[in-house]
From TrEMBL, chain A:
PROSITE patterns: ABC_TRANSPORTER_1, ABC_TRANSPORTER_2. The keyword Repressor does not apply. One of its GO terms (molecular function) is ATP hydrolysis activity. It comes from Loktanella fryxellensis. SUPFAM superfamilies: MOP-like (SSF50331), P-loop containing nucleoside triphosphate hydrolases (SSF52540). It holds the Pfam family ABC_tran. This is Carbohydrate ABC transporter ATP-binding protein, CUT1 family. Keywords: ATP-binding, Cell inner membrane, Cell membrane, Membrane, Nucleotide-binding, Transport. Coiled coil: none annotated. One of its GO terms (cellular component) is ATP-binding cassette (ABC) transporter complex, substrate-binding subunit-containing. Transmembrane segments: none annotated. Residues 4-234 form the ABC transporter domain.
TrEMBL record, chain B:
Residues 106-298 form the ABC transmembrane type-1 domain. It comes from the Bacteria. Gene3D superfamilies: MetI-like (1.10.3720.10). It is found in: Cell membrane. This is Carbohydrate ABC transporter membrane protein 2, CUT1 family. PROSITE patterns: ABC_TM1 (PS50928). Its main location: membrane. GO terms for biological process: transmembrane transport. One of its GO terms (cellular component) is plasma membrane. It is a multi-pass membrane protein. Keywords: Cell membrane, Membrane, Transmembrane, Transmembrane helix, Transport. Pfam families: BPD_transp_1. Belongs to the binding-protein-dependent transport system permease family.
């Protein structure tokens, strides 16, 4: 129950293809997050699963049944809208009770179920109020209440937190994660906010231009992005990408040239692809948080950079520096690239003064000219969480 | 290197000594938002403008009321006296004697206007919803046709309408006044209500659909209650329209005294030699009164902000 499968699902509006063949399996009880920039098709995909949009091609299968032509209720799905879409003339009680009234449930059962939903969402005191008198967070909870009251197998959330302020968003994030644990239902959550994706998801689906760019656990996407797009999208501030030239390749990795420094990046290159690599232009990715102030002379396995940041942000717990185009490090071919670094604590650096930075080549990512990543030779066990116990037995 | 912005040196702000902009006597104005503040001259001009328009609109009513109080002889005295001398409400009594059917005329007027309004609402509310929510072939054409039709007044089409009524055998019935009246009010009502319904967020339809509601259930339980203020506006507009336009249809399609509405009934005050002005005016005021009451009752349902809290 609550198992969802998409099989080369496609959606076109007229001649424009919005979703271009997405295949995905969501297991029961999973918290799946669709993430991507605006226009990547994530909301359309969600609306197709919901039954609000017609599917141009491909199959949507829920618990082994093809549901393409079924109404949302028959699919066992409930959805929480970005704009909440509460019925403004009804009380909170009637809003939550609406799906039950449609079903034609007896009054006593309606009271029980609405009461239970209100308890889960801490709305007991608000049941007789109208949505217009509620705060944003409370309206959000009413919208969720309307979804959970029918006890569906799959919940869909369309950017539910985007209308809330930052503090409330953080609270609701935790509340939604708690709700997911409590209900144990499958949840599919669309957002463009990668913090929401990282914090809530069991698995993240990164969508790019109508295709799935990568599917994986949050830390898997963070540590081993398969494309330059995913690398740039997951992680904040975004990963720095420096143009480099390949000077050598062997079984232990690729040696690249960055401003005259030869760096050995530990990645796996298939033997067949090694011969053509030297001399090629590659992209070296380094996350801002893996950069430190340079200590002493250049050692083996570290890269050194001299950067003149134009803006410094002192956040107390970290210091963030931005070097924008004109003051940036000179790239390999002399062109300017923007560069960002995050240093722990408060560092006494000032804008427009050069600063010496260093990073370990072990932390580097390497991408080919097409933006595909070379597999990193890292021990994922130390960087990600151990796999969860089987929810059926460990629940 | 001491940068005051970083070391945080406190630089005390100079006390403001600017001249106050608000006139000291305009104490009430000082609590208003800046955008709502006006100078004395502006106030004088605003109120002078309001007074001018009010005068033009209300003067006929005032004069009509004063005429209804005067004895008939005083109306033609020279010099004309604006204020009634020895004024009384006598005309409000004698008019009932002169026109025994007067009560029936008022009832007819209300009946025709009310039935027209009910017919228009029954037809227009679903139609406006369909035009607001659904896309279908020929929609723009139909809407355009409605707009074009509403540009004709009923008077232009009297002769074809007369033939139609005769063919249908509706002449000299209430329907002869109700049906054309309702027909000419439908187009503008559709346009008015469609605009209102387009402002109801479509997410509400989607949410109701996700909750398992049918189109009709959604319409009845979600759309109708939210559209109530718009429906009330349409009802008021239609009622006033039906009340005002019944004269021409009654005059041409009906010759039975007992079906006549008030405006035609008032013709009885136009005698062969003279017009009984004071009673005519008294009858007009009494005749308007029930309509006024109905409109005031409807107006109480005009509450704004019904969609507050629906989205965002």
């Amino acid at each position: 129950m609550g198992q969802l499968s998409l099989q080369t699902v496609t959606k076109s509006f007229g001649t424009i293809d919005v979703v271009k063949g997405v295949s995905l399996d969501v297991v029961e009880g999973e918290f799946m997050v669709f993430v991507g920039p605006s226009g990547c098709g994530k909301s359309t995909l969600l609306r197709m699963i919901a039954g609000l949009e017609h599917t141009t091609a491909g199959d949507i299968v829920i618990d082994g049944v093809r549901v393409n032509d079924m109404a949302p209720v028959d699919r066992g799905i409930a959805m929480v809208f970005q704009s909440y879409a509460l019925y403004p003339h009804m009380t909170v009680f009637e809003n939550i009770a609406f799906p039950l009234r449609v079903e034609g449930l007896a009054e006593a059962q309606v009271r029980d179920k609405v009461g239970a939903a209100a308890r889960i969402l801490h709305l007991e005191d608000r049941l007789q109020q109208k949505p217009g008198n509620l705060s944003g967070g409370q309206r959000q909870r009413v919208a969720i209440g309307r979804a959970i009251v029918r006890a569906p197998e799959i919940f869909l959330f369309d950017e539910p937190l985007s209308n809330l302020d930052a503090a409330l968003r953080a609270d609701m994030r935790i509340e939604l994660t708690r709700l997911h644990k409590q209900l144990g239902a499958t949840m599919i959550y669309v957002t463009h906010d990668q913090i929401e994706a990282m914090t809530m998801a069991d698995r993240i689906v990164v969508l790019h231009d109508g295709y799935i760019a990568q599917v994986g656990a949050p830390l898997e996407l963070y540590h081993t992005p398969q494309t330059l797009f995913v690398a740039g999208f997951i992680g904040n501030p975004r990963m720095n990408v420096l143009p480099v030239t390949c000077v050598g390749v062997d079984a232990t990795g690729v040696t690249v040239d960055l401003e005259g420094q030869h760096l050995h990046v530990p990645v796996t290159v298939p033997a067949a692809a090694r011969a053509g690599l030297p001399g090629q232009r590659l992209s070296l990715g380094i996350r801002p948080e893996h950069i430190a102030l340079a200590q002493g002379a250049a050692a083996d396995g570290t890269a050194h950079l001299r950067v003149t940041p134009s803006v410094i942000e002192h956040l107390g717990q970290q210091t963030i520096g931005y070097a924008t185009d004109d003051t940036a490090v000179a790239g390999d071919g002399g062109e300017a690239v923007s560069f960002c670094f995050v240093l722990p604590g408060t560092q006494s650096i000032r804008p427009d003064l050069p600063v010496a930075l260093a990073f370990a080549t072990d932390d580097c990512h390497l991408f080919d000219a097409q933006g595909r990543a070379f597999a990193r030779r890292i021990d994922m066990a130390g960087l990600t969480l151990p796999p969860m116990a089987d929810p059926a037995t460990g629940g | 290197m001491s940068d005051p912005a970083i070391t945080g040196t406190y630089v005390p702000a100079k006390p403001a000594k600017t001249k106050t902009q608000v006139a000291p006597r305009a104490r009430r104005a000082s609590t208003r938002a800046m955008i709502d503040r006006y100078s004395v001259t502006e106030y004088v001009m605003i109120y002078a403008g309001i007074a001018l328009f009010l005068f033009f609109m209300l003067a006929p009513f005032v004069e009509g009321f004063l005429v209804s109080l005067k004895p008939l002889s005083q109306l033609f005295s020279t010099p004309y006296s604006f204020w009634p001398e020895g004024g009384s409400f006598e005309a409000y009594r004698t008019m009932w004697v002169r026109i025994p059917y007067f009560g029936l005329y008022i009832f007819n007027s209300l009946l025709i206007a009310t039935v027209s309004t009910v017919i228009v609402l029954i037809l227009v509310v679903p139609a406006a919803y369909a035009f607001a929510r659904f896309r279908f072939r020929g929609m723009a054409l139909v809407l355009g046709a409605f707009l074009a039709v509403s540009m004709f007044s009923g008077a232009v089409l009297l002769i074809p309408l007369f033939r139609l009524m005769r063919t249908l055998g509706l002449l000299n019935t209430y329907w002869a006044m109700i049906i054309p009246g309702a027909a000419f009010l439908i187009p503008s009502a559709i346009w008015l209500l469609r605009t209102y319904m387009m402002r109801i967020p479509p997410e509400l339809n989607e949410a109701a659909y996700m909750d398992g509601a049918s189109q009709f259930y959604t319409f009845r339980r979600v759309i109708l209650p939210i559209a109530r203020p718009g429906i009330v506006v349409v009802a008021i507009m239609t009622f006033i329209g039906a009340y005002a336009q019944q004269f021409i249809f009654a005059l041409t399609f009906n010759s039975k005294t007992e079906y006549m509405p008030l405006p035609v009934g008032l013709f009885a005050f136009f005698g062969k030699q003279e017009v009984i002005w004071n009673e005519l005016m008294a009858a007009s005021f009494v005749g308007i009164a029930p309509a006024l009451v109905i409109i005031f009752v409807l107006q109480r349902h005009l509450v704004g902000g019904l969609t507050a809290g629906a989205v965002k």
